[in-house]
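Input:
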Amino acid sequence: MSSVVTGRELGLLKCLRCHCAVRALQVPRPRCPRCHAHLHMRKPHSLAVTAVLLSLAALLYIPANLLPVMYTRTVLDNERDTIMSGVLELLQSGSWPIAVLVFVASIVVPLLKILALAIILYSAWRPSGRHRRQRSELFRLVEFIGRWSMLDIYAISLLVTLVQVQSFATVDVGWGAVAFGAVVVLTIAAAHTFDERLLWDEQP
Amino acid sequence: MPPLLVCPACDLVHRGDTDVSAAEIGRASCARCRAVLRRSPHARIDTALAVALSALVLFLLANAYPLVEFQVNGTSRATNLAGAALGLYHAGHLALGLLVLLTTVVAPLAQILGLLYLLIPLRRKRRARRQSAVFRAVLQLRHWTFIEVFMLGAVVALVRLSAFAKVVPGIALVCCGLLMMCLAALTSLTSAEQFWDWVARSRR
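Output:
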C-alpha cells in the first residue's frame, strides 16, 4: 500500500471480538452489529488502567519472591521454600531440566513481563515513531507467555493436596504464593487492557 | 466498495481485494505490524462439534480418575483435576483455590459446554438463545483456560515428590494431555471469524 490510511481516519471502528470493521456512527454507545460487543475507537482509559495494574504487579513481585511460597514439615525437619530456594532444591536433586523450567517460568518470565510492559507503556505514552514493530511484537510475546507463569502455582496446589500424610509430612502454602498468583493475574489483566494500536497512533 | 480490512493491532486499513492476496489461505497478516488480519473460515461445523464432544468426555475422565497417586509408608493419596483447587481451599487459601479452579476446571468446562450449546442448534440451521452473548463469553473464557500450564505444573510436582516418595501418574494425566490438545484444536477451529461465518451460512 502506497499511502498509510488508518481506520480512525476513515471513521471505521474495529470490533476486537469478531474482527469486523464498522462505520462509526454518532451514537452514544456503539455496539457491533454482528456480535453486539461494545465498540471503542481505542480501549477506554487504556494507558491509565494498564499503568495501575502494572504498578500493582511490580509491587507484589517483591513479596512474591521474598516470602515463602511453601512450608514443608516432615519428622526430620521444617523447611520454608521461596520460589528461588525451590529452584535450587530441584537443581541439587539432579533434575536440572525441571529446575531451569521452573526458574524461567517463575522468575525470568514475570520479571521480563513487567519490564517489557513498562517499556511498551512508555512508548505508547511518548511515541517516538521508532522501533514500532519490535514493540508490537514484544507486546504479542508478552500476551503469549503470560499464562506460563502459573506453572509453580499448579505444582504447589498438587503438592499441598497430595502431601497430607499425618505425622509423616505436611505441606502448607505460604503468602508468597498468593502474592505470586496476584502478580500473574495482574500482568495478564494489564496486557488485556492495553490497546496495541496506541503504539502506532500518530500524535496530532 | 471493496471490502476493507482494519488491522486490530495497528489500525492500518487494507483493501480486501488488492492489498490482501486471495492466495493467502488460512490467515492474512498486516503489511505494517505483521499481526493476523483475518483467518479465512475453512473448518466444518461437524469437525468442531466432534472435537468439542471429545473434549467434554476427556474433561469428565480427567475428573473421574486420579491424576497422580502418592504412596508413602503404606498409605496412599490421590487427587483429580478439581482436587488440586480443593486442596488449596483446605489449606486456607480460598483466593488461590478459586484461581486454580477457574483456570483448570470452570473455564475449560464452560467453554466446551458453551460451544456445544451454540453449535448443536447451528448445525440444524437454528440459533441458540442469546447466541452472541454466549459466544463472547466463550472467547473471554479462552483467555483463562490454562490446562496446558497445569500439565507442566503436574510434571514439576511429580519430579519434586519422586525425591521422597513413590508417585504414580494416573490415567487422568493422559486424559488431561489429550484434553489440552482438543482445546487447542477447538480454539483454532472456532475462531470468531469462523463462528460468524457459520452463522451467516445458516441464514441462507
